[in-house]
Amino acid sequence: MAKKLAKGPSPRERLLAASDELFYRHGVHSTGIDAVIERAGVAKGSLYYIFGGKDELVAAYLRGRHDVWRQRIAARQAGISDPEEKILVVFDAIADYVSLPEFRGCPFVNATAESPAGDSQQLAIKEYRDWVRQYFLELAADTGVADCEALADALIVLYDGALATANTTEPARTAALTAKRIARLTLAAAKASSSA
User: Fold this and answer.
1) What is the end-to-end Cα distance of the chain in Å, rounded?
2) What is the pLDDT of residues 36-82, one digit of tens each?
3) Could you count the other beta carbons within 10 Å of the beta carbon of residue 41?
């Protein structure tokens, strides 16, 4: 009986893994297609056939990062029903993320800051920012405060600030835990304002 060989990652999966590693570590602008192709161990034609070019590959890398981030937050919120606690554990997820040895900042901010983005890359960044806004709006609305938009705006500033400040804070998780404390105060103020 012939042994069945285990199927390895597809060229698409290898390109995504290589781009995730290289784009995040070295930057989208600084990492050329040839480096990604070499790391992935695929032919150049495969990249163009699968993604059409670097812009689509960058967009796929960012969407992959977005999916992983949503999963991290969902895992942190699993089993939590209290709307305020759901908000606060987002900052715990940030604290865990920025504490990783490979943390190099928010991939979306990094990609935006590095160079003019292509259309696909801009769309992926916009999708992420729209998700952040909608997510905090939903969480804020679930708390029952009167002005959930103002609460969401404040939480987004804390979220973005925690990710940005982590690069310059030791230990990095301090920024997220500080943002969490401020978020708790912000929630209390929003609830007090709603009941006044």
Assistant:
1) 77
2) 999 999 999 999 999 999 999 999 999 999 999 999 999 999 999 99
3) 13
pTM: 0.90
CA angle 37–104–52, rounded 5-degree value: 30
How far apart CA 35 and CA 29 sit, in angstroms, is 12
pLDDT of residue 5: 57
Tokens of 51: 């993604």
Query: How many other C-beta atoms lie within 10 A of the C-beta of residue 191?
Result: 16
- Are 164 and 106 spatial neighbours (Cβ–Cβ below 8 Å)? yes
Question: What is the C-alpha separation between 84 and 139, in angstroms, rounded?
Answer: 8
The rounded Cα 107 to chain-centroid distance in angstroms is 7
Structure-token pair, residue 169: 């804070």
State pLDDT tens for residues 111-148: 988 867 788 999 999 999 999 999 999 999 999 999 99
3-class SS at 64?
Answer: helix
- Residues 66-105 as b or e (16 or more Cβ within 10 Å = b): beebeeebeebbeeeeebbebbbbbbbbbbebbeeeebee
